[in-house]
Amino acid sequence: MTSKRRERERRPARRTATREPKRRLLVVCEGRVTEPQYLRGLERWVLLHFRESPGARHRDDVLGLVAEKLPGYHKHLRFDDLASGVEDAERRARALQTQADEEGEPNRNPTTGVYRLTESIGRKRGG
Question: What pTM does this model have?
């Protein structure tokens, strides 16, 4: 004896997706060697949203300068705090890299390559 309920055509439990999924970016570093270098670059990158580079500085000094601009900063960022300065930061970071390249010292302190990432994301979004 077969149940009519089992034989009926079933509707899908969920509607078909209508939105494109958001793209995500995952940055992974192994920690012991790359993380201190990466964080120095990140903090310099954050600082470049607000001002020109102060020159070669220890990462703790750069952290202090960032904290002056973003009170309470400790490795946690809100995009809204940085959004208006992204183009300035890209321009400043590119200039630092160009100067280092011209002097035969690519990726020296003070440089940060984060601008390459943000410019790439901007191109993919059509910005």
Answer: 0.69
Q: Look at residue 11 and tell me if it is in a domain.
A: no
For 25-73, what is each residue's pLDDT tens digit? 666 666 666 555 555 678 899 999 999 999 999 888 998 999 999 988 8
3-state secondary structure the chain: CCCHHHHCCCCCCCCCCCCCCCCCCCCCCCCCCHHHHHHHHHHHHHHCCCCCCCCCCCHHHHHHHHHHHCCCCCCCCCHHHHHHHHHHHHHHHHHHHHHHHHCCCCCCCCCCCHHHHHHHHHHHCCC
Is 1 within the bounds of a domain? Answer: no
43 within some domain:
yes
**Number of domains forming the structure of the chain:** 1
* pLDDT 10s digits, 64-111: 999 999 988 876 788 889 999 999 999 999 999 999 999 999 888 899
Domain boundaries, position 92: 27-124
